[in-house]
């Protein structure tokens, strides 16, 4: 989920039997979609096309759906193991654009559940080993579809609790790799299923703070260099545990706002190239500590919009590069955080639409 | 390239440590910013117990080859922190070490001011130079040496009259506020000794934290004077001492610095009586015409400023002369840089250095000498680097507030009293800070005495820190940029707040809430949602928790008599009926009499 290597393509493959059914659905939906979207967006777009350029929502929806159909090319096969992450990226992007209903809920949900192991953890695909990364994505996807009742909360909790180490850190799986990313994932996942009290929160927070650096940022392990992806995970985990008072918001805020380069895009650490995925990691961190006004929102919106492929749909890491679902999600989520019109608001800590988060916490 | 794979290889004995280090050297030459390699290097160095000094030398080599290596600077900061903390041989005193480090980082910054690699290391060096690790008391209310006279449910200072608007009449308690230089925990009746004949039992200290933490920069306790068996007209001394026993600790583990004492006097002339319900004919006015400036301040006026003595300290901490020397040296270096290149990092660093010099706790008489220059630098930066305009604006606001609250003379122009006070007395002080382009609040440690505050017509997006103003009873925030209900979070901790004006803000115009995780709520597991109480309102007006949880969370904990919300997109009829239900004590809503 937060692997900063830029992946070229991610596949949410489906069985061939469903493929045809899906293709037919997609075709008929797409036609209605284009008409609907055009009518609704004309008023919004009229206002903004002049100033900031246009978000070609319908093209992106088409792109995401097309990616799900592909499963035989080399890249799809190579990325098969993180299909669960891909599902989360694609489906959340669709929901933010208000188009989650074009997907067959039951197909997706049954596939997600088939990736769960006895241990309670979820694998990246059917038959793949469980890992904390895919467990969070699975829970998030089920939350999107309001299918929380399908989750055996105790089972998932046991899996995650088993991954907490003595020092409060979390391992990704039974093979033991420790990274603050996994602290965020554990805390986020347990929060969604209302089981945060089952881990040692105090120790978890203490471990995250031990990864705080001279620049106010956070690394993957104690002593690790500050990196926007890790900062998002640590700040997110601290936000969800009510511990943001332990963050030096002014110091970190300055480091984060200096990620914005001349082109308006954001990089992940000093003297590196901008990338659309940082529109999520840097931006959501800035929002959680209330320092987002320290960057230029207009310039960042323009950068993200310039990263679109306006013909075929999809968003890439920087203008004129190849698109992928990973960057499409981060571009759309970033625009949502920037209050771009026509997109549902996303919660910066849970990385789920705000209405989904409200449903989780404020529906009795 | 996964870290865990390499570590596994080593642990299985498939490679020797020395070989790994040589391999790493080669790898890092090829890819000096690869953080996996640096992580692995840390792992290998620890395994072979390589001294920090040697690793520090390595970072110096890397930087020498190419200063534009943030990873090397970062690692240097980790290694140096360790060496300084344990006062390793050759690394003590810290001033010697820091001097050399400043020289090293100048190479990076002065050669290419646009390269960020050295910026953050330099800022860290400044912090290492001026910081005071130990928590200390910065201010308190009542202040040291204060003289309070209570007359029934009114409170006087010396010969001037100052009514504690609502604190005393409504709660019968007097707050005692302790403001530290950083967040601490462990403030309780064993670590803070309060001696007075007025006390019958121990005081209960509460942390003023907006996210329900037990760690806070400001703590408060309430002195209950309702049932006191007191001798009238006798002057009681209240002595607060801290730091005499261990327990007050900062989040980095440092103990409270120096034993200190705050002493104030209390005299009760007439016994406290329950207040009579006052029928006030009109709502609170904030209009210019209703206020008059003070033309001078009397000793007895209840106004505090930064130049007052905070407390009696057994050993007054002064910064070492070397610290001031180091900062002044840096100032000269950066003035030289700016004379050659007009660069952003030059101006920003100079502004920060001048601010540091002004804030040094030295016995010099004239602090704040550099304010004009600092404000000008931030103005320049707003033009030079418009992308980060609002960052410089926030810093500008902080400097301005520091200057305004620095002395009685500087705060005088902002102190007003009501021309038509309810009773014929010199009136209470209203601090009027409107139209100052303030985008952020600060210097709250100098504003603990304020009861009526006008912050209207500014650009405030948050009121972070206001929770410390325990005496605040009337607050005007109209015509600002507050964008959500959660931005009002600090007000939940103000027991005395009665009159609130939040008209003409931006509540309801933003889909994204930037204060959400800085306010206690179920989302951050710092508070449970009060379903039972919510359902009482929900049914009668037909609202859902999903859409109304934020205003419910905020307003349910306030006891307002007056509220103005007009001009906010969210303020519609539905919202007004909700407010009337959730604030039973409300008498005036949007300037309309509710009775």
How many whole angstroms does the radius of gyration of chain A measure?
20 Å
Structural class of chain B: alpha/beta
Going by CATH, the architecture of the largest domain in chain A would be Alpha/alpha barrel
Quickly give the structural class of chain A.
Answer: mainly alpha
Q: What's the domain count of chain B?
A: 4
Total tally of structural domains of chain A: 2
Query: Can you tell me the CATH topology of the largest domain in chain A?
Result: Glycosyltransferase
Proportion of beta-strand residues of chain A: under 5%
Helical segment tally of chain B?
16
Q: Helix coverage percent of residues of chain A?
A: 40-55%
Number of helices of chain A: 15
CATH class of the largest domain in chain A: Mainly Alpha
Residue-averaged pLDDT of chain A? 88
Largest sheet of chain A: 2 strands, antiparallel
Shape of chain B: globular
Catalytic activity (chain B): geranylgeranyl diphosphate + L-cysteinyl-[protein] = S-geranylgeranyl-L-cysteinyl-[protein] + diphosphate
Organism (chain B): Arachis hypogaea (Peanut)
GO molecular function (chain B): Rab geranylgeranyltransferase activity
Pfam families (chain B): LRR_4, PPTA
């Amino acid at each position: 989920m937060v692997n900063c290597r830029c992946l070229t393509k991610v596949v949410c493959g489906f069985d061939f039997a469903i493929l045809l059914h899906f293709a037919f659905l997609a075709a008929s939906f797409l036609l209605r979609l284009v008409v609907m979207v055009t009518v609704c967006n004309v008023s919004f777009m009229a206002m903004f096309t002049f100033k900031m350029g246009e978000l070609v929502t319908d093209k992106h929806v088409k792109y995401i759906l097309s990616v799900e159909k592909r499963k035989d090319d080399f890249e799809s096969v190579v990325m098969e193991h993180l299909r669960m992450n891909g599902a989360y990226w694609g489906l959340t992007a669709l929901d933010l654009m208000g188009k989650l209903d074009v997907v067959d809920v039951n197909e997706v949900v049954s596939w997600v559940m088939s990736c769960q192991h006895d241990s309670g953890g979820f694998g990246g695909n059917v038959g793949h080993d469980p890992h904390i990364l895919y467990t969070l994505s699975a829970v998030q996807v089920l939350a999107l579809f309001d299918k929380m009742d399908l989750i055996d909360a105790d089972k998932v909790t046991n899996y995650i609790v088993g991954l907490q180490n003595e020092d409060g850190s979390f391992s990704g799986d039974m093979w033991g790799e420790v990274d603050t990313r996994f602290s965020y994932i554990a805390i986020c996942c347990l929060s969604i299923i209302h089981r945060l009290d089952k881990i040692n929160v105090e120790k978890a927070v203490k471990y995250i703070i031990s990864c705080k650096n001279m620049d106010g940022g956070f690394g993957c392990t104690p002593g690790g260099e500050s990196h926007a992806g890790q900062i998002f995970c640590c700040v997110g985990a601290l936000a969800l545990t009510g511990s943001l008072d332990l963050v030096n918001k002014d110091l970190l805020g300055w480091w984060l706002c200096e990620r914005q380069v001349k082109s308006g895009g954001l990089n992940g650490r000093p003297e590196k190239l901008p990338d659309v995925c940082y529109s999520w990691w840097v931006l959501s961190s800035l929002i959680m500590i209330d320092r987002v006004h320290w960057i230029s929102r207009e310039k960042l919106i323009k950068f993200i919009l310039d990263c679109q492929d306006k013909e075929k749909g999809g968003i890439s890491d920087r203008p004129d590069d190849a698109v992928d679902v990973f960057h499409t999600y981060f571009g759309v989520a970033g625009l949502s955080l920037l209050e771009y019109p026509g997109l549902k608001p996303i919660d910066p800590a849970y990385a789920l639409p705000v209405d989904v988060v409200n449903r989780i916490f404020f529906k009795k | 390239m996964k870290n865990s794979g390499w570590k596994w290889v080593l642990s299985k004995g498939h490679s020797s440590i020395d070989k790994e280090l040589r391999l790493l050297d080669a790898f890092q030459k090829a890819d000096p910013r690869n953080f996996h390699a640096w992580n692995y290097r840390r792992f290998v160095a620890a395994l072979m117990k390589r001294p920090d000094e040697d690793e520090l030398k390595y970072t110096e080599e890397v930087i020498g080859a190419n200063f534009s290596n943030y990873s090397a600077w970062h690692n240097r900061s980790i290694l140096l922190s360790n060496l300084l903390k344990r006062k390793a041989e050759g690394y003590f005193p810290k001033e010697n070490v820091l001097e050399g480090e400043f020289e090293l980082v100048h190479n990076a910054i002065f050669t290419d001011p646009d390269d960020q690699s050295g910026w953050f290391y330099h800022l860290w060096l400044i912090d290492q130079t001026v910081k005071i690790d130990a928590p200390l008391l910065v201010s308190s209310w009542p202040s040291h040496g204060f003289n309070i006279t209570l007359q029934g449910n009114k409170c006087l200072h010396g010969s001037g009259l100052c009514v504690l608007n609502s604190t005393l009449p409504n709660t019968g308690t007097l707050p005692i506020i302790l403001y530290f230089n950083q967040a601490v925990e462990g403030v309780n009746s064993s670590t803070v000794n309060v001696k007075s004949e007025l006390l019958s039992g121990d005081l209960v200290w509460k942390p003023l934290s907006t996210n329900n933490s037990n760690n806070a920069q400001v703590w408060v306790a309430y002195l209950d004077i309702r049932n006191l068996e007191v001798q009238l007209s006798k002057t009681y001394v209240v002595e607060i001492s801290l730091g005499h026993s261990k327990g007050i600790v900062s989040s980095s583990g440092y103990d409270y610095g120096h034993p200190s004492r705050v002493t104030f006097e209390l005299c009760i002339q007439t016994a406290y009586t329950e207040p009579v319900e006052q029928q006030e004919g009109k709502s609170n006015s904030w209009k210019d015409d209703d206020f008059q400036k003070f033309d001078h301040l009397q000793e007895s006026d209840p106004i505090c400023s930064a130049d007052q003595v905070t407390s009696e300290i057994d050993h007054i901490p002064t910064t070492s002369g070397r610290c001031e020397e180091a900062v002044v040296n840096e100032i000269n270096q950066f003035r030289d840089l700016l004379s050659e290149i007009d660069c952003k990092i030059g101006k920003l660093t100079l502004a920060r250095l001048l601010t540091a010099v002004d804030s040094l706790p030295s016995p010099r008489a004239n602090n704040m000498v550099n304010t004009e220059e600092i404000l000008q630098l931030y103005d320049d930066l707003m033009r030079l680097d418009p992308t980060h305009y609002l960052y410089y604006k926030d810093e500008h606001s902080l400097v301005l507030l520091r200057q305004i609250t620095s002395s009685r003379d500087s705060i005088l122009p902002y102190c007003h009293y009501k021309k038509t006070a309810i009773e014929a007395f010199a009136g209470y002080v209203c601090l009027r800070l409107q139209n100052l382009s303030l985008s952020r609040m600060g210097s709250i440690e100098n504003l603990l005495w304020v009861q009526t505050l006008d912050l209207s017509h500014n650009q405030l997006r948050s009121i972070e820190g206001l929770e410390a103003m325990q005496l605040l009873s009337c607050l005007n925030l109209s015509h600002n940029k507050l964008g959500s209900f959660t931005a009002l979070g600090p007000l939940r901790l103000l027991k005395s707040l009665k009159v609130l004006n939040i008209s003409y803000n931006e509540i309801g115009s933003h889909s994204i809430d930037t204060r959400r995780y800085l306010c206690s709520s179920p989302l951050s597991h710092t508070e449970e949602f009060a379903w039972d109480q919510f359902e009482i309102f929900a049914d009668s007006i037909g609202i859902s928790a999903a859409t109304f949880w934020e205003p419910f969370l905020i307003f349910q904990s306030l006891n307002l008599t007056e509220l103005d919300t007009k001009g906010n997109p969210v303020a519609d009829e539905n919202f007004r009926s909700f407010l009337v239900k959730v604030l039973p004590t409300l008498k005036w809503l949007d300037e309309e009499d509710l009775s």
